[in-house]
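Regression test attached.
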Amino acid sequence: MTTFLLWLGLLGWLASWAFTLALSLLAARLVQTGRRSLDLAVFVFLWIFLTTLTTLAIGLAGGLTARVLGLVSLAGLASIGLPARPRAAVLAGWRRLASWRAVRLWWRELPVWLRRGSSLFFVIAGARAAFLIWALPPFIWDSLTYHLTNVAQWVQDGRIGLFLTPIDRIYTPANYEVLASWFSVFLHHDAVLEAAGLAAYLLIGLAVYAIGRGIGLSPIGSWIAAIAHLSAPAVVYAATGTKNDPFVAAAYLLMIALAIDLRRRVEAERDARPAGHLIVMGLAFLYALGTKAYILHLAPGLLVLAAAGGDGLSLRERGRRLIAGVRADLPRRFREHGVLLSLLLAGGLCLGLYWNLRNWILTGNPFYPYGVTVADRAILDTGLGGFHFDLGNLAANLQVLAAKFGDKAMRIVPDLPGTTGWGWVAYGMGLPAAVWAWIHAPKFRSVAAAFILSLLILLLSSPTSPWNMRYAAWFPAVLALGLAVFAERALRVSGGVRTAFAALLCVNLAMNTAMTLNYNLIPLEAFRNMLARSVWDRHAGLLHVRAPVEYESVYQFVPVDAVLGYNLTANGFVYPLYRADFSQRLVYVPFTPTDSCVSIAQAMASRGTRYLFVAPEHSEDRNIARLRQCAEDGTVLRERAIGLYVTR
Amino acid sequence: MAVATLWYAWPQFFYSLFFGYDLLRTFLPEWAVRLQPLVDVIVR
């Protein structure tokens, strides 16, 4: 990449940051909750939402380039910044959210040990995230298979769309991939792509804090809950692990925080102005739906919060107040900001339904490539597995969860095979504290019941697999909240108890942090290999944690301007073949083991390539064996390097 | 909570910090690294 293009990309990205932040401040004013911690969480969510939405709209129109995004951002900034009214609204929104005086007062309220401990935690967590993002290319299995394959192809094409590949899962809802594209398109490189997940990590922390405040915890308790959850290895790994699960977890936790605050307002005030809460809850649900469908399984947990007993009001009375509040509040909001609210809601429908509608139109199945089975009856059958709603599935998943409980089976690594990944704080302190809080704190009980119901419905329908606990990265939040309820009591008693509690929390936080420094997986030698290269040359296929050595052949022997053919299975790694700067053009070359060598060579030629890549575990063994035979035969194909075949 | 932490520490401490962890293992003395198969057996 030339220095000029790099600077141009950085300038475009800066403009886009400014535009999306200004847009989010503008939107946040329409849906204020009146509670600062919740408003901050809503603002971060709106940034994720609006950045994804604008990138999707521009990408679908074929403008997914640094130049177009930069120019659109500049035009957007001008339209917000030049007229007096929107400019004043943005500045007022900024002043309301970023009150340094309030932050200072809040910080001083925390005890000294917590201030020191949390400062150290965030400095180490920030340094860890920055180093891993900079030093390592993406390496998580699903990302190399389909999440980032979408990103690379879209950025290369400058357009969001479908393309020919054996990887059926490129069809799945892809809001995360759109946001990851925004993190890649300006540099036309994956150097900071992993940073996309940090937005979800931040939102998760703010949402847990807001839940704590919502159930009546002090800032100290809520802060402990947020840090405890943010230290869980499953959450830490996922944040920089190029997975979409943190975004679903963040949306779910935000919906819980909003639901709790809404219930409190409806119970406390006759004019609760509930429309803002409900609009953001709807947008968060739709965003998560367009990210991964299992938000459908989590959402019923919210009903527990609605149904749980409040401060003396019957469920019917609360329902009546809510409906009356919406009837009064919604028209009022639309009278004041009708156009902007309509755009926001239309954007939510677009992000929530676009992917499934597209799949429905193209394949007849909104959940393609997955099927849906209810009580052993296939409602949608694709032959590729999918969601199973039956008690047998729940029993099997509970058995798997029991085996994973306590993380006894193996060390915790990013894909969470055989473990829950909840970590030291959740098990060592959160679990006993949550049991205590269940008995002693009624307000905690309804939140815990909501989490448990969501988990049970998830286990009722999730495919039974060693890796399925990544769908439950939000669950340790309830253990963290239980810990916070206990902490409020423990920190009020004698100095000895207080010291012991603080010491144990710091030890457990340190243990959680220590195991995540290298994802508990990456050998020192791999770091050395990566750091020996320029950041621009750290291709995903060079990190042999998941990708086999065959991928190195591509970088060594295939010219960047050539088209590279590949023959991989539906679970193979396509992403590393694009290179870190998405410069390699790819084409899928299908063939069968019974094809003649000549017809394989013709299949390559007809797709405009001389090169064909295969790799063990990622290609059919019989196809690899066929290519080896052809290379030994030597008439039309030869083996250029391990895994790489070239026509003569 | 201390009991729960100790319960969780077995075997996660070994997995996380001592033997299953290449980054720290690099800094361990040779005799400690040689104990890894023994710890694997105990843990399993």
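Expected vs. actual: identical. The first strand of chain A starts at residue 371 and ends at 374.
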